[in-house]
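Incident log entry.

Two folding requests arrived from the same account within the same minute. Monitoring flagged them as a possible duplicate submission, but the sequences differ. Recording both here for audit purposes.

Request one:
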Amino acid sequence: QVQLVESGGGLVQPGGSLRLSCAASGFTLSNYWMNWVRQAPGKGLEWVSGVTSGDITYYADSVKGRFTISRDNAKNTLYLQLNSLKPEDLAVYYCARVMVGGTGGMDYWGKGTLVTVSP
């Protein structure tokens, strides 16, 4: 069955870096558009970044120039490199698979990994 498992979160100081991973199973990652979405405490879901099956990448304005999405097809794993972290980046980060069909809806989600940015 389809499964997404995030890892790599943790506590980092402002200005620091982390790399999040999302291990996929049950489907071929490279065939799908994949997203990273985050949720800060007490707030709604915020789309962060996406990569198409053709490896075109997109970023929210709030993270552009600081975060990088990538994919290792051999490992069937999605990544999000987080640099120059700010306190407002504190959130649970989820990877999600975008449904085929062009609606943009996401049909499978991981359980998330927590990123805490604090001095």
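Request two (distinct sequence, not a duplicate):
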Amino acid sequence: QVQLVESGGGLVQAGGSLRLSCVASGSIFSINAMGWYRQAPGKQREVVAAITSVGITNYTDSVKGRFTISRDNAKFTVYLQMNSLKSEDTAVYYCAHYRGRSMFTGVSYWGQGTQVTVSS
């Protein structure tokens, strides 16, 4: 059983920055892709960014150039650095553990979510 624990959410003004962290346990972390999703009120959950087991990254268009996903396999941790935050980034952010080395293998586990609120 894989457990994912997120941290780093909070309230920030527009234009500010936050860094989310997700620590994984119970997984051979280095061989699985990891990702960040978000869900705003009344909207479907959407993928924000993903990183493969070898560090290849993908981003949804709305965060390109502002967000950076990274991973530290030695610490079983994936990060999401969020800069130039906008009010439309307000959502609950979820860490995702994929079944295999790429995001195309599908999500196998979710974190509990962490709230990010951007005030304008």
